[in-house]
Design goal:
alpha/beta, Rossmann fold, 4-stranded parallel β-sheet, 14% strand, globular, binds phosphoric acid mono(formamide)ester
């Protein structure tokens, strides 16, 4: 079952893994989905514990990781900053290095989630996760941070493979901004663009002025596309962006000015975003697409990012993708944490 040696490998973004390694995780996830409780999988993490460290709340991530550990015969611990005594800019306490070196002695893997409101500048969450990874031998898995959400990216493409065929080469995915009151992190969106471009998909990005993503990420997506014979394009046309798309991914994200002044200006972000009401994925726009599938990592902001009709329509695959989180995480844990 397990062919490549991925034991101990961190997963902070799918971009850090080879395509062959990602494909191995996807194929194992598909096998685990088909034979969910088969004895070949139910003892993989026997007597082992996965540490889940959440700075932010979650529905899917916590439940799917906890259940994944159980289904592999192991256990998952739920940890929050308030259950530890970590040093921060405002409080005295333990360093990340000390905490990481101790956690490394207990667990078989460490998952970390740190999102927009727990940092003061874009990239701080990534730095924290990478600092844990530097001091841990056990694999460190991002459970969503300000830049990336690798398990979500794997779950997304597992859903696209099921609904459009295993070869995603040449398919066009539109990632479009959606208005709303959430001022979300860039993580799910950037991860999706990275993994889709590595699997040969044409990646289209649509957003209003002021909502550009990190330049380095865009450059990497462009490079991935050119290496894989696909195209990257950008537009600020909220309607024409849909033309010919095979998959539409609509999601709110914060503006370029979100951390101006050294903290997240959530109120300003929300006020600005709620005015851009043209930016919603609706039935009319979906008609311009190539009968596109609707994709979203959830939680969905219905009535803002997307209409109820599209989110609950026959082309929506949001629940399949949410289910896939369980299967891909089981595969990643088996590949990186088993003996
Ligand atoms: N998609 C996702 O990560 O969902 P949660 O925030 O509920 O975990």
């Amino acid at each position: 079952m397990i062919k490549m040696n991925l034991k101990g490998k961190d997963l902070i973004t799918t971009q850090d893994w080879e395509v062959e390694e990602l494909m191995q995780a996807l194929e194992l996830a598909e096998e685990m989905k088909k034979k969910r409780f088969s004895p070949e999988f139910t003892c993989i993490l026997q007597n082992k514990s996965f540490l889940m460290f959440f700075y932010n709340p979650s529905v899917r991530t916590r439940q799917s990781f906890e259940i994944a550990a159980t289904e592999l015969g192991g256990h998952a611990l739920f940890l929050e900053p308030k259950t530890m005594r970590l040093k921060s800019k405002k409080t005295a306490g333990e360093t990340i290095e000390d905490a990481a070196k101790v956690m490394d002695r207990y667990g078989c893997g460490l998952g970390i989630r740190i999102l927009e409101d727990k940092i003061n500048a874009y990239g701080e969450g990534e730095n924290i996760i990478r600092e844990y990874a530097e001091h841990c031998n056990i694999p460190v898995i991002s459970m969503a941070h300000d830049k990336y959400h690798p398990c979500q990216g794997l779950a997304d493409v597992m859903g696209y493979r099921k609904h459009t065929g295993n070869d995603l080469k040449g398919k066009t995915i539109l990632h479009t901004w959606g208005h709303g009151a959430l001022a979300r992190s860039h993580c799910s969106l950037q991860e999706s663009m990275l993994i889709c471009s590595r699997l040969g998909m044409n990646v289209r990005l649509a957003h209003p002025e002021g909502y550009a993503l990190e330049e380095d990420v865009i450059n990497t997506v462009q490079k991935n596309c050119s290496e894989n014979g696909s195209e990257f394009s950008k537009t600020d046309d909220a309607v024409q962006a849909y033309k010919g798309a095979d998959i539409v991914y609509s999601r709110n994200w914060m503006s370029e000015k979100a951390y101006e002044g050294g903290e997240l200006n959530k109120q300003k972000e929300v006020e600005k975003a709620l005015k851009l009401t043209d930016w919603i994925c609706d039935e009319k726009k979906m008609k311009i697409s190539n009968n596109a599938l609707f994709s979203h990592p959830m939680p969905v902001d219905r009535g803002h990012e997307v209409t109820d009709g599209v989110a609950s329509g026959s082309r929506s695959i949001i629940y399949d993708i949410a289910e896939n989180r369980l299967h891909v995480q089981k595969a990643v844990m088996a590949l990186t944490m088993s003996d």
